[in-house]
């Protein structure tokens, strides 16, 4: 294990590390050997290092590391830089610049899985970990600076100088004087996954007993066909689903029907605003194959409609004559229509619990609990009229037992599950999952979860719904009970995952926390990610209703889900022309990747361009 130490003052820290088994130390400093040897204890530390086989290199500039090592010796497993400073009375701006160049230089000599350790005095880093936190502009902004070189802060802990044998800090204002390290912190950085920019994607699915291909809406390209619920998956959403199913199997005969569910659905959704739907338009002509599409041999005779301008005042899509569209389809926003269809099949068995699960897709406003895609599981059972309440209670009790069993294996924080009458909620109190389901069908109960940090009426607490329906089945005496659960929300609440986007990360450090599908309390590998704020203001087209859902969807798409907040902060209407101007504030932040100021500036410029073209707004 090769360890590189930079900016050593008297080499006492390097000497303390040198004895570790299996570690090869390369200790460096910025000054020449003559300057350093005159410092107290430096000569003794250098002698000890050389006796133990360590390399000692002088006059090393931390911003040009690759210049000092041959290509075959450039890969270090760990780089230490304790208390970096430009020297003398350099201010925060110069020290930020030093760190920025250092991180870029470190990226050229660090292994893929390597770590960069940077120790800073109390308050310098500018993170919430500092006990005496400075104002952001007066700190070194270390996490934002590191993000510019592709690093994320993965751990931070106190720098305890008293536990390091023989260590003595030195270098106060470029002199052989010690300085205060009480409250100092060691910041541990790792490489981030790069920001990904996905090409347009073609997806194949079963539709009306035939295979069709369609272009995936760009905002969903990285989320389609991820296979989280497949047999070989260790993803927590599958673990939650399997545990729920196993518990219910103890009380009901059970039948899985996932394999026959198409990603596309045709028909009319009652009481659902169509601006929340991902529309897919299929041409009546024969659809080319996926191979022809990928080889560029044929143009697609289908498309997705991200932002349909031809809508009425309620957001309903109008299809005009002459547009050559035979049928309209959309990505399924819920599995409930499929559950309804199952009850009409000849092989539908009363008393058997039918299970459907899979991802569903909905355009929605940006908020912590608003997911454009999540995994839903629906349980369907027909029972004799008059026994539906007993069936509901049995369903809920088994769901409660399974969730409590999962929770006890994860953590000790308090968890409560409650069945609440649908009439006890106002629409504004519901998260997007519950609000959308309530539009699809008349709901009798909401299934809510409460933890130590959330209440039953918190936006993220509603994880499921219960409803009943009367259909013309084998017997008119039968009532159908439906239970729908949001598996993503359940996994987040059980494992303490604070951000829904983390469920979709491509970083292997997420799934490694759930070996063999075991649920555990999630530990973030990207701490205190920097956030960036931009404003945008524009004139709304005359006579048109502003489509806020489309506006938020564009923000999701151009940023790759890096916008965590999009708030209207001002509106203005000219008295003479009646023209309306809106001003929104966007907050950019990543939960798993390094996000730099420059990357965000590019996203903001692209966002302005896209809303101008797609929503026909006039930028101010």
From TrEMBL:
One of its GO terms (cellular component) is mitochondrial matrix. InterPro entries: aa-tRNA-synth_II/BPL/LPL, BMT5-like, Fdx_antiC-bd, Fdx_antiC-bd_sf, SAM-dependent_MTases_sf. It comes from the Eukaryota. Residues 527-620 form the FDX-ACB domain. Its main location: mitochondrion. Its EC number is 6.1.1.20. Keywords: Aminoacyl-tRNA synthetase, ATP-binding, Ligase, Mitochondrion, Nucleotide-binding, Protein biosynthesis, Transit peptide. It catalyses: tRNA(Phe) + L-phenylalanine + ATP = L-phenylalanyl-tRNA(Phe) + AMP + diphosphate + H(+). One of its GO terms (molecular function) is phenylalanine-tRNA ligase activity. It is found in: Mitochondrion matrix. SUPFAM superfamilies: Anticodon-binding domain of PheRS, S-adenosyl-L-methionine-dependent methyltransferases. One of its GO terms (biological process) is rRNA base methylation. Belongs to the class-II aminoacyl-tRNA synthetase family. This is phenylalanine--tRNA ligase. It comes from Ciccaba nigrolineata. The gene is Fdxacb1.
């Amino acid at each position: 294990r090769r360890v590189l130490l930079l900016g050593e003052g008297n080499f006492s820290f390097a000497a303390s590390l040198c004895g570790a088994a299996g570690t090869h130390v390369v200790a460096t400093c910025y000054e020449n050997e003559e300057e350093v040897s005159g410092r107290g204890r430096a000569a003794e530390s250098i002698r000890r290092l050389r006796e133990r086989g360590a390399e000692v290199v002088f006059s090393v500039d931390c911003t040009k590391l690759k210049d000092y090592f041959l290509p075959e010796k450039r890969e270090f497993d760990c780089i230490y830089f304790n208390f970096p400073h430009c020297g003398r009375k350099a201010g925060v701006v110069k020290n930020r610049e030093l760190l920025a160049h250092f991180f870029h230089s470190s990226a050229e000599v660090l292994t893929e899985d390597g770590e960069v350790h940077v120790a800073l005095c109390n308050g310098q880093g500018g993170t919430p970990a500092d006990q005496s936190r400075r104002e952001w502009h007066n700190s070194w902004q270390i996490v934002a600076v590191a993000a510019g070189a592709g690093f994320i802060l993965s751990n931070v802990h106190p720098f305890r100088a008293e536990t390091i044998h023989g260590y003595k800090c030195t270098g106060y204002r470029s002199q052989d004087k010690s300085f205060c390290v009480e409250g100092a912190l060691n910041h541990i950085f790792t490489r981030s996954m790069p920001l990904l920019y996905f090409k347009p994607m073609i997806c194949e699915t079963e539709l009306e007993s035939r295979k069709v291909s369609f272009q995936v809406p760009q905002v969903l390209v990285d989320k389609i066909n991820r296979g989280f619920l497949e047999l070989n998956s260790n993803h927590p959403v599958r673990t939650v689903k399997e545990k729920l199913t196993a518990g219910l199997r103890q009380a009901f005969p059970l039948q899985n029907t996932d394999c026959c569910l198409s990603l596309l659905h045709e028909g009319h959704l009652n009481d659902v605003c169509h601006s929340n739907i991902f529309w897919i338009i299929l041409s009546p002509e024969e659809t080319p194959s996926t191979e022809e599409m990928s080889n560029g041999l044929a143009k697609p005779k289908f498309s997705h409609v991200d932002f349909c301008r031809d809508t009425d005042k309620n957001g309903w899509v109008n299809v005009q004559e002459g547009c050559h569209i035979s049928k309209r389809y959309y990505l399924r926003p819920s599995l409930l229509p499929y559950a309804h269809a199952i009850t009409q099949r000849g092989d539908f068995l009363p008393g058997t619990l039918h299970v459907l699960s899979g991802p569903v897709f909905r355009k929605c406003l940006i908020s912590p609990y608003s997911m454009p895609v999540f995994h839903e599981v629906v349980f369907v059972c027909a029972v004799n009229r008059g026994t539906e309440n007993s069936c509901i209670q049995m369903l809920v009790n088994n769901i409660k037992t399974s969730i409590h069993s999962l929770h006890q294996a994860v953590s000790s924080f308090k968890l409560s599950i409650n069945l609440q009458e649908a009439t006890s909620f106002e629409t504004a109190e519901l998260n997007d999952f519950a609000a959308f389901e309530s539009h699809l069908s008349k709901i009798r109960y909401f299934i809510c979860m409460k933890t130590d940090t959330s209440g039953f009426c918190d936006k993220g607490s509603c994880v499921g719904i219960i409803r009943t329906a009367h259909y013309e089945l084998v017997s008119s005496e039968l009532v159908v009970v439906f239970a729908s659960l949001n598996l993503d929300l359940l996994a987040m609440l059980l494992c303490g995952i604070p951000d829904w986007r983390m469920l979709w990360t491509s970083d292997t450090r997420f799934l490694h926390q759930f070996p063999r599908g075991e649920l555990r309390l999630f530990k973030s590998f990207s701490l205190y990610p920097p956030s960036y704020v931009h404003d945008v203001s524009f004139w709304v087209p005359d006579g048109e209703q502003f489509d806020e859902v489309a506006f938020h969807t564009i923000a999701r798409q151009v940023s790759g889900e890096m916008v965590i907040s999009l708030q209207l902060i001002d509106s203005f209407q000219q008295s003479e022309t009646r023209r309306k101007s809106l001003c929104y504030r966007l907050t950019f932040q990543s939960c798993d990747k390094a996000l730099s100021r420059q990357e965000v500036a590019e996203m903001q410029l692209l966002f302005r361009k896209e809303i101008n073209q797609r929503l026909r707004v006039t930028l101010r």
